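Question (not urgent): is this output format expected?
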Amino acid sequence: MSDRLSAFQVRQAYRLLAQIMRAAVDNEIIGSSPCRSVRLPRVPESDPAILTVAQVDKLAAVCDVPDRVLVLLLAYSGLRIGEALALRRRHIDIRSGRVAVAQAVA
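Got this back:
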């Protein structure tokens, strides 16, 4: 698989197969999982692209209002995308300038 798929895709396929095999072992369909001790390809780590203030402003300027708010929130708050997308009005206190992270989406 490694010569046709990315390391990330191979790891996703392995996770699914390992879950299936674990269920087969739990249901006594097979004695042990063939997914044990499998060496998976490493996912290369990339350096994050950190935008300058000018780049954030330029990006926000070309976005529609809801997306502009999201861009600015992500750029300056330190929230992860899943945390920002799960925010609701009740999580934002304009008076105190606080955002309560109560949940995240995957």
